[in-house]
Amino acid sequence: MTQSVELLLDEATDAAVRAQWDALAAAGLPSQARHTGESNRPHVTLAARRAIDAALEPALTDSVSSLPLPVRVGAVACFGRGPYVLVRVLVANRALLELQARVTEALGPDQRTAHHFAPGSWTPHVSLARRVTADQVGSALAALGTTPDLDGRAVACRRWDGDARHEWRLRTAGV
Questions:
Q1: Which residue has the higher pLDDT, 173 or 128?
Q2: Which residues touch 150 (CB under 8 Å, ≥6 apart)?
Q3: Alpha helices, DSSP H, located in the chain
Q4: Measured in whole angstroms, how far is the alpha carbon of residue 155 from the centre of its chain?
């Protein structure tokens, strides 16, 4: 499993993403809505590692001191080579990219995830559904309907431990 550092969205943006999860589920398609764990919520993964040393938490907390920050949830996209991950891509802005770079710097190098999370290679996104087949992509887009950009804020940062299935906040701002 992995551990990660993730941004959480303001209530209105969170609710808008959850509505899209619900639309996919109502259409009988894969959806993040089907994951009923207490910690399942729309988020933007800033970095992931096999393990994150607890001694790094003060530096991680400092690295996200700029919260809250504006975010724009943009276009729907598919990641992977099939089955796909259906996502909403965040429109990159300087503040978001700088925050992610500070987080990865605080964590130090990691060869396993470097290609996904290295500054300049990271694609900020919110997942809508996993394991979407090629045959389901068109139906998923139809179920989502129009997907105007969502202007919101990243208001908190959490740590997620996938092994322990546990989350905790590093910083909450403006909530």
A1: 128
A2: 13, 16, 17, 72, 73, 88
A3: 11-26, 57-63, 94-107, 114-117, 134-144
A4: 13
What rounded mean pLDDT belongs to the chain?
A: 91
Cβ neighbourhood burial of 36 (10 Å; 0-12, 13-18, 19+): exposed
pLDDT of residue 166: 87
Residues ≥6 apart with Cβ < 8 Å to 125: 44, 77, 79, 87, 88, 89, 90
Would the CA dihedral through 112, 47, 22, 40 be positive or negative?
positive
Q: Summarize pLDDT for 42-79 with one digit per residue, the tens.
A: 999 999 988 899 999 999 999 999 999 999 999 999 99
Rounded (5°) CA angle 34-123-110:
95
DSSP character for 108?
Answer: -
Q: Are 135 and 28 within 8 A, CB to CB?
A: no
Give the predicted TM-score (pTM) of the model. Answer: 0.92
Collect all residues with Cβ–Cβ distance below 8 Å to 128 and sequence separation of at least 6: 17, 20, 21, 24, 31, 32, 76, 86, 87, 88, 140, 144
